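Hi F.,

I've been meaning to write this up properly since the lab meeting, where we talked about keeping a consistent format for the predictions we share between groups. The idea is simple: the sequence comes first, exactly as it goes in, then the structure tokens exactly as they come out, then a line or two of notes. No screenshots and no reformatting. I'm using this chain as the first example so we have something concrete to point to.
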Amino acid sequence: MESRTALVTGGNRGIGLEVCAQLAQRGLTVLLGSRDPKNGERAARELKKEKLIVYPITLDVADPVSIDRALAFLSRERVEIDVLVNNAGVYPPGNVLKSTEDAFRETMEVHYYGPLRLCRALVPGMQKRGYGRIVNVSSGSGSFGEGLEGPAAYCSSKAAMNAFTVKLAQCAGRHIKVNTLCPGWVRTRMGGPTATRGVKKAAETIVWLATLPDDGPTGGYFRDKKTIPW
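Output, unedited:
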């Protein structure tokens, strides 16, 4: 089987860290994206103790300069990304009237513009090589079908991510699988200690979408490997 390389944003903790571990366990080379280089190095070091092929890369998806630097590094090192998991997330509180404009801008940068910039840079290479998997980690809070429940900025940005997923799938080509998902309510720093599921369960659908076969779905929205309305 041909070796693949994955880039996971927000990979230094929570769901992202578990996704890095599970992808590496399946034989992928994993670039663990973290906006704090020390946190990224620490997380990658722990996974390497398990004999997994994981390397840290400094990447703040809310910062176009950071994205450009990371892409330049990949180009210099001749690293080709086959799998992109847009996992990095923020969760500012507040409704439409009380949430600050900065909160709306931050969530759109992290959940929409950052993934957009990465996809626009990396998908052409995937098209050229005839293989690519894009996984956008969304939320039930971004689902019109589930009432857009949650903080306004978060819900709006996740709904935008879902729409972006569909539009990218329409133009990426048949060899590129582009999907989004809700991982559920997860016990992480964002989800809190009372959440109903752990990171291993949350990562399962992400890893499934990141390793889809050639006849796998594209342009879909999933929870627990099943299509859900958005």
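Notes:
The helical segments are 14-25, 37-48, 64-76, 101-129, 152-172, 199-210.
The chain is about 45% helix and 15% strand.

If this format works for you, I'll send the rest the same way.

G.
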